[in-house]
Amino acid sequence: MNNTSNLKVGRLSIALYPTHLQKKDGKVTYHAKVVNRATVSMADICNDLVASGNNCGLSSDEIETIWHNICQARKKRLAEGISSRDDLGTLYPSVKGTFADDQSPYIKGVHTITVRLRASEEVSETMANLTPAITQGNTCHPVIDSVQDIRTQTDTALTPGGLLSIKGRNICLVGDDEAVGLYFENVHDTTEIVKVSQTDMSTNSKNVLCLIIPTTLKGGCSYRLRLVTQYSGNKQVFRKEPLIAYATTEFTALTVKTA
Description:
By secondary structure, this protein is α+β, with helices and mostly antiparallel strands.
């Protein structure tokens, strides 16, 4: 029975990932991976058949039992070197590994018998006619995990002119957008935003930032940290759009120490 017309197509997505190679003109190429939205079990599909009314009067358990028996029969045929075909394609046994000569024995661990699926024309045609949605892969969203003032060894006080350690994930400050950087924002005065100079950054890595706290911060005021980066997992390949991370409220009610 051909149920291709009932397939819900168009929900397949692919994610683009920057390669580590750049062309001579400086442009970056991307490779794609299909986004696996979920993995369903035999029981899930049987339940779907019952819910949609395509169960031929059988219960989910009855369908699953029949399906299990079919799979066992196909597995037995595969072990005998026999391929089996259904609407999805042809399952056939295959061997991996090289042999030294035509008299070499089969050695487990060196040689492996595997099973492959050759998609049917119907499935191949269905997939070929899809237009997948394209998403940004490996977005590497920046996350600030902890902030510590080195002089006070706390995450609640800032020492202007002292050192600050920031730990997190994907927090490396890279990119050609002028917004990229680390900012101290006055909690009560939104007009006061102080950007850390690149010359005041001693460590700028994927997981750690170390910097000199700006001396222009006002004593007695509270600040929060805002980080903007185009980091993509590769320092030479920038994201098209910058991503923003804030230190969470658990450790960002940072108060500048009064002299």
